[in-house]
Amino acid sequence: MSTLRSPGEFELLPDPDTLTALQLFKAPMVVRYVLAVAMTVIATVVAVGLDNAVTIPNLSLVFVVPVVIAAVFFGLGPSLCAAVLGALSYNFFLTEPRFTLRVDDPASIWAIGLLFVVGLITSAVASTARRRADDAVLARRQAGIVRSYSRDIVAAGEPRAVFSRTANALETLFQVPVIVMLMSEPLGDFVERRGAIEPREVDIDAARSSLTTGAVSVADVYPFNGSRFDFWPVMTSVGNRAVIGLAFDPEERPPQPGTLVEIIASLLALALDRQHLRTGSDSVADGQGAS
Which residue has the higher pLDDT, 196 or 281? Predict the structure, then answer.
């Protein structure tokens, strides 16, 4: 018999090691900038040491390394910070006159300017490539969760197990508070909740409006000011009325959450229809047995 998956079990479906860069990118902004500055300091120490030991014509390229690393692991902002600091450090420590930002040699001005431009271009290209790679990894992870969810609800023995699996899958996909309800008067028949946010009356009203209109109800939008959930209706062919609610942080709302939610909603609707057909078949079998 199938056991109920917890959100943690869903997270293990893809290889977590493939999300290392994504996890670094989600580090606090201050930490990312501090690490970018630290790498530039290290590059400066290395460049000054090499300059004292040997003659290297393109020593400025040492400062491109922290720019690339910062772009790949920390994002565009920290990478640009490393590019600016690298150009200033090269000017201050390695061009004549030393230990001043004044430049006497026109060739050094061109070298500093070229270092800055190369840093900007490298930063933009590396950051874009990293973001695309992270998006691909995240898409594979989400696809794995959806596949696992589709198998789990097929094996679910009762509606409450279906709703519980649905809530687990949504919490794993979006990492936000979740509510999944089978609506009736005056409250839901089934209410599966994940996270610390309890649905209030305005949230229930917003959920009912979503079911009535068949459209998504966005959080904290008139006439449901104060609602904390975005609601998606789940319409089945047999009249069951379910709704999915997600409480996104306004500052961290994903760009297009609806696509994934609609896939989950469609699978949930199919599962509820299957439960209804199974119940109907059992009722017919019981009636024939009684006769």
Answer: 196
